């Protein structure tokens, strides 16, 4: 969540990002990439988790971001509607482009519709003709410029002739492009992009010798579709028989429809099943072969099964074929008939079903597809015989040639596959043959102008057909080819062609984009009889010519030296012919129908008439709304350079105002229209890019985000053109272009330097991606004197260095202002009357005078706090620069040294404020160390800034403070030790006493603090470490010595009797030693080499002191034991006190029960030992010290007892001495064993000496004393254990 919060606080709430969004430079992808960087940086710093890869975590976060961005949780839910800005990025249709540029140019919908209809923009022929007229007008304008010498001002006089050549070359190149576009393909006319080329060759379109057409150049391809809808009059047809139709073009391939089962006759009408679904009986002829329209026979047969009695005879009878004359008679023999009778197809068709002798040509019919294979001995010879004869009305197809193509059934038989040739005629006969045991046919006459709806046709039947009144309903459609512009009958006469006034069938054919021909055809002829190439002709309406009979409406085609007169039988037909030829000739004069002119003049109005062309109707409406000026204008008379400049500027405004982050790039549709405008109207490429650069610079200077790559592209184009490198093949350079280029170059240089200076605000967080790097690359290109000589790197480096120096000042000034504003707001939020303060906050911040007065009242602590906050912001800025602008493959990777200089300059500005804040701090205050830690932690991890100028300044500034701090801390710790031990109560605190804990905490805190400073200079850092280690060693040594003294004093003040109890303070002192030893390992040890200098020394001191303390404590225990033994010495044999005690006890025992002598002393000592052992075991933290103490205590006690017994070697122990010693020795032996003292120590020679002596004394006492020892013995027993318990 830290990364998410950082993304929100640092990126989304950034003013720089807000400005970038407002300028149109931030896209959703930019926000996503910055979020990804934040998350990835955080995820990479986390430890590895088993079973969960970091890539999975990162992918999950990005999926969550995408879901939040979409505003929904379900990623599968698609956006219901595409936004307009997103749609603008797609390839738009013509209608969408119209709508877009209506919005761009502010054209109303009805105005566009008027222009669209009046200019016939939906008519591809009219638009192609308009392009040809415009290109011809441009050629004429070029000739006029050359004649009148009205050239633009060029940088060189020799460019004038080159300018004319370039104009003609560009026009001729467009003509060649237009000429190369195919015209024979069908489909909707689409605007083709007219590409410019570097080829400067001029194509002469005016030489007729190179473009003379021959008759073979005129090719027309047709698409013919025939649909059989219904058949009437088939009364003799069985309902379950199969019906299908075959057709063929004369001399061409045969086609067949799908088969259908006939239903029951209804009202003398036989329908095929599913007949209403036209696709089931659709027959289409669509070949790429040449089909000049002329009479050819298209034969079609409707095949219906014959009667049962007309089939072959029974099994043993050979049919009587003498009355028949067909192919079956020639092939079928009795032997073959007998062989085929045993065969049957999977559909149960036999040879009886196949043989149909009554069929005139073939004599047989296949019942199904398998019949061709099962009865191939019959069918193959018939087919071969049929081919050799060359008949065309065949109802038999070869099985292998049949294939299904979509919804159409095609039957390819074995007939010759020669191309089907048609000629031109008013009608093309198509005999349709319907066979029902006899030939039935109908002849149709389809033309491209025939109606498309279905019609009934009467079928011709033979005399012996039982159904004489047969009708078939057919839908015939014959589409004209794309290059067939118009066709029909005309009267014509000319000088060179059509020399007789005669009615002929004419077709206006477009051979190529610039070549049209009027062709006349005869019936059944593939090539035109005569043709007239329309290049250079002008068509117009004319009056009826005297002496020419035939035709009612006249028009002519005139060319220098030639005139061809045409006449049609209908006025509307004449108008259509003139319009079609007007488009074909490309003439500038637009013919106006005489009837329209007369009616307009007669009525004095402009009401369109019905016999006028539709374009005239819309032109009249346009005149009514004031649009006639635009419609009738000549495009060649406009200043297209200025018009394009306006269109491009408006388009750029529209593009920058949409919600898509375009960065100045046009959408594909906009580029298409602008390219088309330039190519069609001859707008110079340099002018286009200069205007584009100027518009982009204006918007960039006003704060809009423009892609530097786009600027680079246009600038490179203009620079290449101005320096004569011909990027678009144009070698002429005008003075205006050169002057505008120099002006734009200087503006661009200033803009780029300003953007580099403000790179954090122009390209925040490295967005748009790669923009800053592209800006630096563009600056290098702008600094070039020409396009060949590269600018010296030092010159580029000097410019960028200057920009980055200014950038450091700009960044720090804005950062300081931001920190001040943030500090003011924070004070307002913390104030108890925040509500009132928030209302006047902005006024307070803006009031400079009041701010200065407040600045004088800022306390040193507040100033230091502000400086630390400012340092955090400085580090954040440097980290962002490194992450988004300098590292890896980012922008300043080329100039890393300059980025380091920029960072040092930036830090030097901060150093001024930092020094000022530190100067006002009171002496001996350490609140400024967090500032050093913050800055040093950042600088020492930066390879370029570590030990740099600012870093060294920071060290010089804080080194005296660190030394002073260490001195004061050493003095303070020493004083605390002295005062602490004087007042020490030796109450346990954690692992030691209060004074020791405070000492060790201070030493550790001081060392941790100095270590956390991470002093960058190695020598001074080692010096600080050595000093602190030595200080810790001295302080711990002092602590150990003071504890040793206090331990001895404490023991001296304690009791020497068995009433002695080990005090808590004694244990605390032992713990202080334990803690001191543990702390010395951490506080006094140096890294390898220096370790023994301090650490071993203090360890030895602690060990010696512990030994002394154990010795003192054991001596105390021995003193107590000696006191007990001293009491027992009064019972030594031979002493007066011993005799007196013995007599007294004996005398008293006669009257009362006297307690066992000596047990109180023994019990008191045993209790003392046990209590001391328990206290030491429980309170002392070091087991090793306890074991050492117990071992020494046991040995000392045994030695004292042994010495005491040795001194009385010659004396017999008193019974009471014996009892006490036995009890003390046995109990202490057992207690020390329970405390973990080893058996080897317990069973020492000294102990064995004591045991033996006491055993002997016990035996002696048992003999001499009648009562014995009353159960006390050196031998172990359960009773004694119970007694002890």
List keywords for this structure.
alpha+beta; seven-stranded antiparallel beta sheet; seven-stranded mixed beta sheet; 53% helix; elongated; 1285 residues
Structure description:
- It comes from Echinops telfairi (Lesser hedgehog tenrec).
- This is Calcium-dependent secretion activator 1.
- Helix 30 runs antiparallel to helix 31 (896-919).
- The protein has 1285 residues and is of the alpha+beta class.
- Helices cover 53% and strands 9% of the residues.
- Strand 17 (515-521) and strand 18 (530-533) form a beta hairpin.
* Measured distance between first and last alpha carbons: 66 Å
Q: Which oligomeric form is depicted? A: single chain
Tally of separate helices = 44
| Helix-strand makeup class | alpha+beta
Q: Based on DSSP secondary structure assignment, what is the total number of beta strands?
A: 21
Largest sheet: 7 strands, mixed
Arithmetic mean of pLDDT: 76
Report the radius of gyration as a whole number of Å: 60 Å
Instruction: Name the overall outline.
Output: elongated
Strand content: 5-15%
Instruction: Detail the poorly predicted runs.
Output: 78-82, 185-210, 264-315, 388-439, 602-612, 828-855
Q: What proportion of the residues is helical, as a percent range?
A: 40-55%
Short recap of the structure:
This protein has 1285 residues and is an alpha+beta fold.
Secondary structure layout:
Elements: H1 2-12, H2 15-22, H3 28-45, H4 54-70, H5 84-87, H6 94-105, H7 109-118, H8 124-148, H9 159-180, E1 223-232, E2 242-249, E3 254-256, E4 260-261, E5 269-270, E6 282-286, E7 298-303, H10 327-331, H11 334-340, H12 351-354, H13 371-374, H14 376-389, E8 402-405, E9 408-411, E10 430-435, E11 440-444, E12 455-458, E13 460-461, E14 471-479, E15 484-494, E16 502-512, E17 515-521, E18 530-533, E19 538-541, E20 553-559, E21 562-568, H15 571-585, H16 594-603, H17 614-624, H18 628-632, H19 640-657, H20 668-681, H21 685-701, H22 708-722, H23 735-757, H24 759-762, H25 771-782, H26 793-830, H27 834-839, H28 841-846, H29 848-856, H30 860-886, H31 896-919, H32 929-940, H33 949-982, H34 994-1012, H35 1018-1052, H36 1064-1083, H37 1091-1128, H38 1136-1149, H39 1159-1179, H40 1183-1206, H41 1215-1234, H42 1239-1242, H43 1245-1264, H44 1278-1284
Parallel strand pairs: 7-10
Antiparallel strand pairs: 1-5, 1-6, 1-14, 2-3, 2-4, 2-7, 8-9, 10-11, 11-13, 12-14, 15-16, 15-21, 16-17, 17-18, 19-20, 20-21
Helix pairs in contact: 1-3, 3-4, 6-19, 7-17, 8-9, 8-15, 19-20, 19-21, 21-22, 21-23, 22-23, 22-25, 23-25, 23-26, 26-30, 26-31, 30-31, 30-32, 31-33, 32-33, 33-34, 33-35, 34-35, 34-36, 35-36, 35-37, 36-37, 37-39, 37-40, 39-41, 40-41, 40-43, 41-43
């Amino acid at each position: 969540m830290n990364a998410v919060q950082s993304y929100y606080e640092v990126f989304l709430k950034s003013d720089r990002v807000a400005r970038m969004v407002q300028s149109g430079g931030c896209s959703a992808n930019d926000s996503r990439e910055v979020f990804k960087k934040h998350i990835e940086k955080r995820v990479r710093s986390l430890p590895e988790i088993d079973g969960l890869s970091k890539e999975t975590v990162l992918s999950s976060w990005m999926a969550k971001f995408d879901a939040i961005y979409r505003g929904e949780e379900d990623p599968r839910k698609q956006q219901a509607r595409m936004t307009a800005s997103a749609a603008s990025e797609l390839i738009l249709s013509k209608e969408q482009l119209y709508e877009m540029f209506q919005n761009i140019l502010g054209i109303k919908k009805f105005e566009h519709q008027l222009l669209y209809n009046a200019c016939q923009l939906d008519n591809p022929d009219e638009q192609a003709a308009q392009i040809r007229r415009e290109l011809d007008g441009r050629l004429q304008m070029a000739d006029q410029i050359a004649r009148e010498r009205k050239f633009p001002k060029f940088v060189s006089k020799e460019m004038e002739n080159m300018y004319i050549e370039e104009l003609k070359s560009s026009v001729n190149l467009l003509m060649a492009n237009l000429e190369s576009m195919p015209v024979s393909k069908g489909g909707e006319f689409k605007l083709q992009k007219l590409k410019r080329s570097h080829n400067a060759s001029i194509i002469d379109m005016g030489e007729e010798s190179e473009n003379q057409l021959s008759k073979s150049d005129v090719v027309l391809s047709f698409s013919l579709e025939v649909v059989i809808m219904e058949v009437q009059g088939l009364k003799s047809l069985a309902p379950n028989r199969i019906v299908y139709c075959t057709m063929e073009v004369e001399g061409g391939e045969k086609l067949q429809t799908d088969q259908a089962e006939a239903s029951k006759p209804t009202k003398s009408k036989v329908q095929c099943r599913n007949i209403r679904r036209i696709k089931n009986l659709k027959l289409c002829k669509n070949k790429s072969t040449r089909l000049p329209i002329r009479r050819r026979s298209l034969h079609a047969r409707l095949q219906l099964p014959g009667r049962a009695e007309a089939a072959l005879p029974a099994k043993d009878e050979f049919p009587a074929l003498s009355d028949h004359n067909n192919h079956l008679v020639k092939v079928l023999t009795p032997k073959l008939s007998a062989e085929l009778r045993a065969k049957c197809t999977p559909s149960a068709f036999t040879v009886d079903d196949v043989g149909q002798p009554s069929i005139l040509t073939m004599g047989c019919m296949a019942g199904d597809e398998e019949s061709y294979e099962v009865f191939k001995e019959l069918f193959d010879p018939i087919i071969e015989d049929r081919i050799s004869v060359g008949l065309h009305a065949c109802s038999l197809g070869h099985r292998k040639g049949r294939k299904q193509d979509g919804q159409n059934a095609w039957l390819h038989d074995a007939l010759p596959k020669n191309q089907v040739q048609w000629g031109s005629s008013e009608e093309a006969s198509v005999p349709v043959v319907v066979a029902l045991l006899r030939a039935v046919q109908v002849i149709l006459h389809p033309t491209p102008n025939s109606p498309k709806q279905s019609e009934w046709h009467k079928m011709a039947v033979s005399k012996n057909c039982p159904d004489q009144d047969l009708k078939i309903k057919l839908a015939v459609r014959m589409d004209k080819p794309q290059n067939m512009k118009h066709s029909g009958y005309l009267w014509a006469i000319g000088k060179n062609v059509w020399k007789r006034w005669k009615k002929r069938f004419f077709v206006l054919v477009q051979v190529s984009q610039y070549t049209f021909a009027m062709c006349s055809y005869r019936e059944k002829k593939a090539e035109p009889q005569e043709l007239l190439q329309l290049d250079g002709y002008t068509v117009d309406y004319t009056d009826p010519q005297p002496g020419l009979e035939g035709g009612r409406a006249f028009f002519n085609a005139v060319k220098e030296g030639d005139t061809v007169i045409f006449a049609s039988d209908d006025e509307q037909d004449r108008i259509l012919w003139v319009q079609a030829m007007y488009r074909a000739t490309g003439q500038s004069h637009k013919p106006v129908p005489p009837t329209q002119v007369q009616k307009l003049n007669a009525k004095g109005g402009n009401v369109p008439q019905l016999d006028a062309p539709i374009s005239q109707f819309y032109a009249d409406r346009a005149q009514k709304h004031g649009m006639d000026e635009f419609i009738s204008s000549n495009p060649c008379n406009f200043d297209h350079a200025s018009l394009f400049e306006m269109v491009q500027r408006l388009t750029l405004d529209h593009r920058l105002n949409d919600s898509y982050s375009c960065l100045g790039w046009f959408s594909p549709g906009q580029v298409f229209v602008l390219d088309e405008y330039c190519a069609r109207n001859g707008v110079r490429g340099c002018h286009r890019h200069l205007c584009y650069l100027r518009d982009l610079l204006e918007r960039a200077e006003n704060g809009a985000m423009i892609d530097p790559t786009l600027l680079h592209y246009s600038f490179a184009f203009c620079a290449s053109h101005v320096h004569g490198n011909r990027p678009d093949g144009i070698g002429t350079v005008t003075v205006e272009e050169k002057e505008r280029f120099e002006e734009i170059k200087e503006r661009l240089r200033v803009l780029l330097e300003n953007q580099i200076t403000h790179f954090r605000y122009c390209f925040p967080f490295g967005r748009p991606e790669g923009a800053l790097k592209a800006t630096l690359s563009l600056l290098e290109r702008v600094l070039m004197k020409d396009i060949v000589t590269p600018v010296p790197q030092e010159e580029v480096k000097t410019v960028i260095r200057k920009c980055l120096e200014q950038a450091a000042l700009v960044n720090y000034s804005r950062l300081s202002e931001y920190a001040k504003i943030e500090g003011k707001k924070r004070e307002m939020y913390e104030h108890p009357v925040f509500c009132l303060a928030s209302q006047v906050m902005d006024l307070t911040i803006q009031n400079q005078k009041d701010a200065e007065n407040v600045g004088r009242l800022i306390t040193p602590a507040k100033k230091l706090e502000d400086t630390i906050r400012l340092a955090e912001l400085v580090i954040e800025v440097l980290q962002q620069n490194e992450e988004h602008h300098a590292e890896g493959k980012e922008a300043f990777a080329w100039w890393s040294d300059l980025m380091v200089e920029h960072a040092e300059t930036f830090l030097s500005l901060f150093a001024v404020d930092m020094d000022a804040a530190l100067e006002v701090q009171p002496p001996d205050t350490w609140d400024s160390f967090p500032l050093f830690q913050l800055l040093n932690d950042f600088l020492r991890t930066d390879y370029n800034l570590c030990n740099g100028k600012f870093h060294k300044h920071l060290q010089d500034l804080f080194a005296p403070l660190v030394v002073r701090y260490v001195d004061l801390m050493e003095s303070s710790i020493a004083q605390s030790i002295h005062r602490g031990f004087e007042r020490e109560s030796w109450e346990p605190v954690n692992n030691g006493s209060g004074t020791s804990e405070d000492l060790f905490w201070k030493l550790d805190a001081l060392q941790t603090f100095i270590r956390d400073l991470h002093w960058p200079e190695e020598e001074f850092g080692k010096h600080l470490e050595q000093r602190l280690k030595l200080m810790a060693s001295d302080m711990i040594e002092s602590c150990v010595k003071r504890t040793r003294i206090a331990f001895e004093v404490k023991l001296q003040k304690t009791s020497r009797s068995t009433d002695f109890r080990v005090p808590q303070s004694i244990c605390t002192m032992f713990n202080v030693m334990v803690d001191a030893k543990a702390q010395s390992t951490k506080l006094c040890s140096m890294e390898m080499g220096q370790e023994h200098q301090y650490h071993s020394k203090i360890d030895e001191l602690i060990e010696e002191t512990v030994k002394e303390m154990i010795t003192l404590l054991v001596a105390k225990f021995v003193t107590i034991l000696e006191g007990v033994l001293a009491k027992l010495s009064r019972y030594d044999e031979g002493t007066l006190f011993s005799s007196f005690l013995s007599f007294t006890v004996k005398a008293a025992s006669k009257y009362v029960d006297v307690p066992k002598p000596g047990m109180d002393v023994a019990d008191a000592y045993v209790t003392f030992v046990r209590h001391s052992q328990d206290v030491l075991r429980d309170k002392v933290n070091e087991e090793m010290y306890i074991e050492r103490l117990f071992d020494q205590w046991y040995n000392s006690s045994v030695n004292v007892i042994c010495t005491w017994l040795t001194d009385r070697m010659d004396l017999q122990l008193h019974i009471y001495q014996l009892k006490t010693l036995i009890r003390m020795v046995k109990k202490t032996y057992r207690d020390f064993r329970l405390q973990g003292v080893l058996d080897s120590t317990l069973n020492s020679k000294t102990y064995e000496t004591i045991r033996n002596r006491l055993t002997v004394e016990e035996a002696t006492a048992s003999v001499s004393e009648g009562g014995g020892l009353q159960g006390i013995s050196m031998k172990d027993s359960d009773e004694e254990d119970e007694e002890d318990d």
